[in-house]
């Protein structure tokens, strides 16, 4: 009998209970016992949901406070010196301090006099999930320091569940971390492996003692281009771990194993999970290479997108696999369902036809279960019914007039190379722009959003529920814009923004106004910590029926004599942070989006807006995991940006913004986007990025981290600016935070910006 399992379920809860509880805890409105109770209820509910859907072996360890990589750091005692509690034993306050940083004054229980920087936050492979980067020291010691996994296993057992604990494997964990400290230069973090492995031994022994049979060890780095010493380390590590108890399933996802396939297949463990959604081509080879004793888990239900599984085509693979593997065949979603919204059943207002094409995490578990049933009992009536339904859905989608729009396709076909080229080169444009804009050296600005207060969100909620009229909602948002403009004038910022109060999210806001997108009411997915996004779904050809931002930004510009920067989201980011179509390529969807945004840029210019920022925060994230696929992506991604940015006059200054990115791999392409100014994230990594950042146009390296409530002081920002000015000529430098301020409160925002403006003024003096 084949077996249905799951690699992980979303932890946020269908009503984002975890988000709400954590935020209440941080505000002091919920105590620790209350917070823990919410976690326990969510785990119990999620196991139950998966079990009812037909999943036989349930994951434990997919629940985490804030982030699952952070939970591993606590487990292993990877707690940087600055966060180490006096008692020696880390608690939830330690965990949240590592995640969020601590202000010098408003610090946790008064134990720290100094402000503490949070761990670095970065994206999890090519997803919109962000993890906290483990910080290693050269003399790093590891010690089991966190009981959560064991407690949760007991909890699941007490509820009568058959479970499979999930851990991040030792190689992936080390790969994700960073060495810190002055002695780190020249030290290879792989040298920490020998010290780390005994911890896995201890964990496996404890789990075995609790009656666990299988453990899932996630090693997604096996789908990356790995250096030879890392490949060797895989063999070494798992040869050592072989001695330990428990059956081990190594899980790989987000891509194909390719040249690591032989390595992965032959590791001395008991099973291997592969992603057949992202990399279907690896299926036949893996069958030939897998030792006869091993379980093979096939990920045929897409954990990264919301389309219903084509059961019929999944079954052709499965029937074959079942013949070869029999009991050794397992089925699962392609990856953890962390990246899927929770439950489609809640979307009562969705168009019935569109809804019938979709599946969220709960439905995906049922798909895995029905596929398993279909190989175990092919004639079961429910199997036949599910197959018939799946065939009907596929047919309805293929033929639907909702998808194909001849006018959009014709416009795309008519695009020429000249459409993606500014009229003059940067050297010419910048002179004209400086004449029009009349800005001081080191101009100060922000990235776009100001605090999304609960008053703003409640007003929008009331408006969406029909309890607030359009007129009253507009007036409320105008009030927010006036407030933002007044504050920026008072702070003495040079280039103002309207603050994005009217936007629920920088992607969803535009998606709601474009044809070809559908959006959900409850389709939340965790992005980082307590923050969630509700990715919209691209189901058909995309177009812009009318202007989307001109009224708001025009209103803001009329309030001030200063330059008002218009704010848009770029095509690559719109695509990357949405659930895309799969019947046409990503590049087609990006170009359709580019044309829609191009029209918006031109409308803003016509309305008198002199600077337009087109955010491409997800540009790096869209980069394929394998280097062989990079150039193809970079070509169409840069072209899409240029297509939306190149319609304007020389005098109109185009900005772009990117955050959290390892840019060095893509720096040439970023330059090829030819934005006049780029603002980037650099502060958490101490301007390290600028070492290699040869950007030919103007650049605003972020001088403070907006993900932490900590208020940066002027001195530290001056230091960062001096460092930046050593790398980049001052006449090309801008001064700005790392990213938008929507997640911050007003008090800390104003305090931080006062200091930032003071830092810019000081640097102007120093450099004059
Ligand atoms: N899509 C996307 N990806 C991104 C980013 C981004 O901005 N967007 N930024 C980077 C970091 N990721 C982030 C992701 C989310 C948030 C964020 O602030 N999310 C908000 C939700 C934003 C939103 O959609 N808000 C809606 C709905 C708000 C809401 O919860 N309303 C309440 C009612 C009001 C209330 O009680 O506050 C409800 O419906 O129950 C709105 O403003 O309209 C949150 O989790 O809190 C920030 C950064 C990388 N990836
Ligand atoms: Zn950003």
TrEMBL record:
Residues that hold L-methionine according to the record: 447-449, 500, 615
Function as written in the Swiss-Prot or TrEMBL entry: Catalyzes the transfer of a methyl group from 5-methyltetrahydrofolate to homocysteine resulting in methionine formation.
Classification via HAMAP family: Meth_synth
Identification of the protein by name: 5-methyltetrahydropteroyltriglutamate--homocysteine methyltransferase
Binding site for 5-methyltetrahydropteroyltri-L-glutamate: 16-19, 123, 531-532, 577, 621
Protein family per UniProt: Belongs to the vitamin-B12 independent methionine synthase family.
Binding site for L-homocysteine: 447-449, 500, 615
Cofactor(s) essential for the protein: Zn(2+)
Uppermost EC category: transferase
Positions annotated to bind Zn(2+): 657, 659, 681, 739
Keyword annotations from UniProtKB, A to Z: Amino-acid biosynthesis, Metal-binding, Methionine biosynthesis, Methyltransferase, Repeat, Transferase, Zinc
Record note on cofactor: Binds 1 zinc ion per subunit.
Catalytic activity line of the entry: 5-methyltetrahydropteroyltri-L-glutamate + L-homocysteine = tetrahydropteroyltri-L-glutamate + L-methionine
Domain Cobalamin-independent methionine synthase MetE C-terminal/archaeal: 442-761
Pathway: Amino-acid biosynthesis; L-methionine biosynthesis via de novo pathway; L-methionine from L-homocysteine (MetE route): step 1/1
Catalytic site: 707
EC number: 2.1.1.14
Keyword Repeat: yes
Limits of the Cobalamin-independent methionine synthase MetE N-terminal domain: 4-324
Keyword Zinc-finger annotated: no
Pfam families reported in the protein's UniProt record: Meth_synt_1, Meth_synt_2
């Amino acid at each position: 009998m084949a077996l249905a399992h799951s690699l992980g379920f979303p932890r946020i809860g269908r009503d984002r209970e975890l988000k709400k509880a954590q935020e209440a805890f941080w505000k002091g409105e919920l105590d620790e016992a209350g917070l823990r109770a919410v976690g326990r209820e969510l785990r119990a509910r999620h196991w139950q949901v998966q079990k009812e859907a037909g999943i036989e072996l349930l994951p434990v360890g997919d629940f985490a406070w804030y982030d699952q990589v952070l939970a591993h750091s606590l487990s292993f005692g990877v707690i940087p010196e600055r966060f180490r509690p006096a008692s020696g034993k880390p608690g939830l306050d330690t965990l949240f301090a590592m995640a969020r940083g601590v202000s010098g004054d408003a610090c946790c229980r008064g134990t720290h006099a100094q402000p503490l920087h949070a761990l670095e936050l970065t994206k999890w492979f090519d997803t919109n999930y962000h993890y906290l980067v483990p910080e290693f020291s050269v003399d790093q010691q590891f010690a089991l320091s966190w009981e959560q996994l064991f407690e949760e296993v007991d909890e699941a057992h007490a509820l009568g569940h058959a479970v499979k604990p999930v851990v991040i494997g030792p190689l992936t964990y080390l790969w994700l971390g960073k060495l810190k400290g002055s002695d780190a230069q020249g030290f290879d973090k792989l040298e920490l492996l020998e010290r780390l492995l005994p911890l896995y031994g201890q964990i496996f022994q404890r789990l075995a003692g609790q009656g666990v049979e299988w453990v899932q060890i996630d090693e997604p780095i096996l789908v990356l281009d790995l250096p030879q010493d890392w490949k060797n380390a895989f063999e070494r590590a798992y040869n050592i771990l072989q001695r330990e108890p428990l059956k081990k399933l190594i899980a790989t996802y987000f891509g194909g194993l390719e040249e690591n396939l032989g390595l992965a297949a032959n590791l001395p463990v008991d099973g291997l999970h592969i992603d057949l959604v992202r990399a279907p081509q690896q299926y036949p080879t893996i069958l030939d290479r897998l030792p006869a004793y091993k379980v093979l888990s096939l990920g045929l239900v897409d954990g990264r997108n919301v389309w219903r599984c084509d059961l019929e085509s999944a079954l052709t693979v499965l029937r074959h696999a079942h013949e070869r593997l029999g009991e050794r065949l397992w089925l699962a979603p392609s990856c953890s369902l962390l990246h899927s919204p929770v439950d489609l059943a809640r979307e009562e207002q969705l168009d019935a036809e569109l809804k019938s094409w979709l599946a969220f995490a709960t439905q995906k578990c049922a798909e895995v279960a029905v596929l398993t049933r279909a190989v175990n009992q092919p004639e079961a009536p429910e199997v036949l019914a599910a197959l018939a339904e799946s065939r009907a859905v596929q047919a309805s989608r293929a033929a639907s007039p909702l998808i194909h729009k001849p006018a959009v396709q014709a416009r795309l076909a008519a695009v020429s190379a000249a459409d993606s080229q500014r009229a003059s080169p940067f050297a010419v444009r910048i002179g004209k722009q400086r004449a029009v804009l009349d800005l001081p050296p080191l101009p100060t600005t922000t990235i776009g959003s100001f605090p999304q207060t609960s008053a703003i969100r409640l007003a929008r909620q009331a408006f969406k529920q029909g309890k607030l009229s359009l007129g009253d909602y507009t007036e409320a948002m105008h009030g927010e814009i006036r407030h933002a403009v007044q504050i920026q004038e008072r702070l003495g910022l040079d280039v103002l923004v309207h603050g994005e109060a009217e936007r629920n999210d920088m992607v969803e806001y535009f998606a709601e106004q474009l044809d070809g997108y559908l959006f959900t009411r409850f389709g939340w997915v965790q992005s980082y910590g307590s923050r969630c996004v509700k990715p919209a779904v691209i189901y058909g050809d995309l177009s812009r029926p009318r202007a989307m931002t001109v009224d708001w930004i025009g209103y803001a510009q009329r309030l001030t004599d200063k330059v008002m920067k218009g704010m848009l989201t770029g095509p690559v980011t719109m695509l990357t942070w949405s659930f895309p179509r799969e019947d046409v390529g990503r590049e087609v969807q990006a170009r359709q989006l580019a044309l829609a945004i191009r029209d918006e840029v031109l409308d803003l210019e016509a309305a008198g807006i002199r600077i337009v920022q087109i955010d491409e925060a997800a540009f790096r994230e869209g980069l394929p995991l394998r280097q062989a696929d990079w150039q193809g992506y970079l070509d169409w991604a840069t072209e899409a940006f240029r297509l939306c940015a190149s319609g304007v006059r020389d005098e109109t200054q185009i900005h772009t913004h990117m955050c959290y990115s390892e840019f060095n791999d893509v720096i040439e392409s970023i330059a090829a986007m030819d934005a006049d100014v780029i603002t980037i994230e650099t502060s958490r990594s101490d301007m390290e990025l600028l070492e290699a950042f040869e950007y030919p146009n103007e650049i605003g390296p972020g001088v403070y981290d907006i993900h932490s409530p900590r208020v940066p002081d002027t001195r530290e920002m001056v230091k960062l600016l001096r460092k930046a000015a050593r790398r980049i000529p001052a006449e090309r430098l801008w001064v700005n935070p790392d990213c938008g301020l929507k997640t911050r409160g007003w008090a800390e925002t104003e305090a931080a910006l006062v200091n930032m403006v003071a830092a810019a003024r000081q640097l102007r003096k120093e450099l004059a």
